[in-house]
Design brief:
single chain; alpha/beta; Carbamate kinase; Rossmann fold; 4 domains; eight-stranded mixed sheet; 30 helices; about 40% helix; elongated; binds adenosine-5'-diphosphate; binds aspartic acid; binds magnesium ion
């Protein structure tokens, strides 16, 4: 006999019922077959909700309606497809059950409570619907069926809501049943019967356990658990991309994985089949050809670690105090008290000093646990032998599971390093005595990232970087080109998987978890009718696309966006930008940005703010962090002015040089925006603030390259004409400088806490003397670099170098993640 269990998604609608029937008939053509069925997806939750409504005195009309809306179409669809499927009979039986449920509900409404016995009955009705429909379908397909009632066969011990099956007693019950080799056996999952013959439940998701018990008592050759995934994966495949399908694992590994949260198997499933060495196969109803995962006595040691799991909604309790030390039996009393209250303990750790014991329980049991501990140790608490109970709520247990752990060294090192890289704070650690698992208790908020980082460490050497780009014009567009060109290289040489998961502009936003098609993003964006990104939608995006370490790259010149960086950091994004808008806003906002970055553990990087791709900001930050301090700064910070002043040096007039730069596209659309010095002033402000000066833009003494009156004009042409009026004075300055062996440069300087930008004559011994033709140069005289300054020099403008600066910031962000 083979026992096949089908979960809720496998019987969610009429098509799925047909799939299951096909699999059942196919198996039955080879061997005797039994099916254990769950309720159609969502039905049990609706029944639970219905019971809760009833207990509160409500009629639960909505739940009734929703249950009908799921079940009735299954019945009528199948009736239409199969001539001998007796729709009327099945509908009548379904309606009968619904009437009984309604009667029970009326009783609850009257009483204002729902006794557990009634609760168990109502909540198990979803399974009875599945059996009703499947038996009619199999008969319509010409197959005989034998229905066995779990209440009569699975003998249970425990309460109405979560009982265990006594295998020996159940075996005898099963043996007494009449067999029918021709028929497919059907049994509803999720319930059994106690010694009084009353219906009891086996706990939520208990149908897997029902199947395992039926396999054990019928001494089946195999127990197959069919769900909506291809088998057991190294991680929940819906939560972690790149989860690996496991071919084989041992019973012990499967038990540990399910115990620590792998929902694909109910934690109690394995024990009954392991006891009789019955192999278990986990398979996908939608992909019956797939090999599935085989759980048996043998494991596959070539995969030493089988999986990473997370168990959420956990509370960590710590009991400590002088009374703990050396007192025999304290731990025994503690755990006996807790287990007597019916609270299951998921994990225990004890400090080696015996001063404290920490353990995890489901958060829902916290009040109960505290009550029994307080009562058990009331004297010790009163005498001060024990400290007040410490509780950390909202925890998750992250576990690494695998038989190979015993043989392979460094597993725990790798695990904890991964958690450290994810910047996750560990609250407690435990290693299973079997050396089959290591667990860390962390904040639940960090569970997704922690699992993803640990999974990457064990199963995938690639680090992921998820980019959301806003603004794909000049620099943004070039950045996308560079990413497209570098992706393969970064993957192979640096182990980095760089994905552009979102691209937006002021009108629309498109996204794709697997990287947007970088050849067609423009048309995709134009064709999209989506709304632009907001911090709120960005936060949702992290959840929807399972982003681990997302970066918002702002390649716009939008002030509105720059003023939202704090919100984006709070939503979970690092910020990388060439835009100077945020850093040159008020000092108060500048400060808020740094605070938010610290608070949310998000990076804010803006290397391209000054000198485009030149290593300026990072160099300066490193120098200051190493204890250096700025004495004086002098620099040529505008590529345009650098080019223009080079031409002047060669004998062109100011207006000729400006026209030349303008016609080559080296200036802003209106050259006045280069010549007024404000762009240089902004860069200077950023450098000054970096060095700790709390300045505003208005504090900078800006003397334009050309006096203001010569920069007036309605458009570029008018400005270019007007500039001619400045030529005479300017040429005079050039000549005066020349007479002294100097050249004119547009220099930004910081000295004695003051910032200034102006045209400055510089002599041959100055580092800026030779800087022209569009080059930038920054001379930093510092405590460590004096009297000869540290000079950074090179092209400091242009989309390619700016985009490269942005990309290098992006690459610096790997391995950074958010802290609580
Ligand atoms: P069923 O309703 O068929 O019993 P479940 O929803 O209980 O199915 O279990 C299947 C789900 O378990 C999958 O959809 C998957 O998201 C989740 N899951 C969690 N961890 C794992 C894992 N390690 N391997 C496979 N699936 C997992
Ligand atoms: N239908 C039950 C539940 O949802 C049992 C199961 O699906 O395993 O909990
Ligand atoms: Mg399940």
């Amino acid at each position: 006999m083979r026992v096949l269990k089908f979960g809720g998604t496998s019987v969610a609608n009429s098509d799925r019922f047909e799939d299951v029937a096909k699999i059942a008939l196919d198996t039955a053509s080879r061997t005797q077959t039994a099916l254990v069925l769950s309720a159609p997806a969502k039905i049990t939750n609706l029944l639970v909700a219905l019971v809760n409504q009833g207990a509160q005195g409500n009629s639960a009309d909505k739940e009734f309606e929703q249950i009908r809306a799921i079940v009735e179409p299954i019945i009528t669809d199948l009736g239409k497809r199969h001539a001998t499927f007796d729709t009327d009979k099945v509908l009548a039986e379904f309606n009968n059950t619904m009437t009984v449920i309604k009667q029970r509900l009326d009783g609850m409404v009257l009483l204002g409570v729902c006794p557990e016995q009634v609760m168990a009955f109502v909540e198990s009705r979803g399974e009875s619907f599945s059996i009703l429909i499947m038996s009619e379908l199999l008969k319509a397909l010409g197959k005989k069926v034998r229905i066995i009632n779990p209440v009569e066969v699975l003998v249970t011990e425990g309460g109405y809501m979560e009982s265990s099956v006594n295998i020996e007693l159940s075996k005898a019950k099963y043996a007494a049943l009449e067999d029918d080799k021709e028929a497919i056996t059907l049994m509803s999952g999720f319930c059994g019967g106690n010694s009084k013959g009353e219906l009891v439940l086996l706990g939520r998701n208990g149908s897997d356990y029902s199947a395992a018990c039926l396999a054990a008592i019928s001494q089946a050759e195999c127990c197959e658990i069919w769900s909506d995934v291809d088998g057991v994966y190294s991680c929940d495949p819906r939560a972690v991309e790149g989860a690996v399908l496991l071919k084989k694992m041992s019973y012990a590994e499967a038990m540990e994985l399910s115990y620590f949260g792998a929902k694909v198997l109910h934690p109690r499933t394995i024990a009954p089949i392991a006891q009789f060495k019955i192999p278990c196969l986990a398979k996908n109803t939608k992909n019956p050809q797939g090999p599935g995962t085989l759980i048996s006595e043998q494991t596959d040691l070539s995969v030493p670690i089988k999986g990473i799991t997370d168990l959420k909604n956990i509370a960590l309790i710590n009991i400590s105090g002088p009374g703990m030390k050396g007192m025999v039996g304290m731990a025994g009393r503690l755990f006996t008290a807790v287990s007597r209250a019916g609270v299951s303990i998921t994990l225990i750790t004890q400090s080696s000093s015996e001063y404290s014991i920490s353990f995890c329980i489901p958060q829902s049991e916290l009040a109960k646990a505290k009550r029994v501990i307080s009562s058990e140790f009331r004297l010790e608490f009163k005498e001060g032998l024990l400290n007040p109970i410490e509780v950390k709520e909202g925890c998750a247990i992250i576990s690494v599971v695998g038989d190979g752990m015993r043989m392979v060294r460094g597993i725990s090192g790798k695990f904890f390093r991964a958690l450290a890289e994810a910047n996750v704070n560990i609250r407690a650690i435990a290693q299973g005595s079997s050396e089959r698992s290591i667990s860390a208790v962390i904040s639940q908020k960090r569970a997704t990232e922690a699992v993803a980082f640990a999974h990457t460490a064990f199963f995938n050497s690639l680090q992921r970087i998820d980019i959301v780009l806003i603004g794909c014009g000049g620099v943004g567009g070039e950045l996308l080109n560079q990413i497209k060109r570098q992706r393969d290289h970064l993957r192979e040489k640096n182990g980095l998987d760089v994905r552009v998961v979102g691209i937006g502009n002021s009108r629309h936003f498109i996204c794709d978890a697997n990287c947007i098609d970088l050849d067609n993003y423009k048309s995709l964006l134009d064709a999209s009718d989506s709304e632009p990104l907001t911090p709120e939608s960005a936060e949702q995006l992290i959840k929807d696309l399972h982003l681990i370490n997302p970066i918002l790259v702002d390649c716009t010149s939008s002030e509105a966006l720059a003023l939202k960086y704090v919100d984006y950091m709070q939503a979970g994004y690092h910020i990388v930008t060439p835009s100077k808008k945020a850093n040159t806003n008020s000092y108060e906002y500048y400060r808020q940005l740094r605070e938010a970055s610290k608070k949310h553990h998000r990076k804010f990087l803006y290397e391209a703010n000054v000198g485009a791709g030149l290593p300026v900001i990072n160099t300066l930050q490193n120098q200051l962090a190493a204890g250096d301090s700025l004495i004086e700064f002098e620099g040529i910070l505008s590529g345009t002015l650098s080019y223009l002043f080079g031409l002047v040096e060669d004998g062109k007039t100011l207006s000729e040089a400006t026209y030349d730069a303008y016609s080559k596209g080296f200036t802003e659309p209106n050259p006045a925006d280069d010549l007024d010095g404000m762009d240089v002033a902004r860069k200077l402000l950023i450098l000054a603030r970096e060095c700790g000066l709390e300045l505003e833009l208005s504090d900078i003494d800006v003397q334009g390259a050309v006096p203001k009156q010569f920069l007036q004009g309605a458009n570029a042409q008018e400005v270019l004409l007007n500039i001619k009026n400045a030529d005479a004075d300017f040429t005079k300055m050039v000549n005066e400088a020349k007479a002294e062996g100097k050249v004119l440069r547009y220099v930004g300087s910081i000295k004695n806490g003051k910032c200034q930008c102006k045209v400055t004559p510089v002599s041959a011994d100055n580092a800026l003397y030779k800087v022209r033709d569009g080059e930038n140069a920054l001379a930093l005289t510092t405590a460590y670099y004096q009297p000869i300054p540290l000079v950074v020099r090179g092209y400091g403008a242009g989309t390619a170098v700016t985009a490269a600066g942005v990309l290098s910031d992006i690459l610096r962000i790997q391995n950074w993640a958010r802290e609580d």
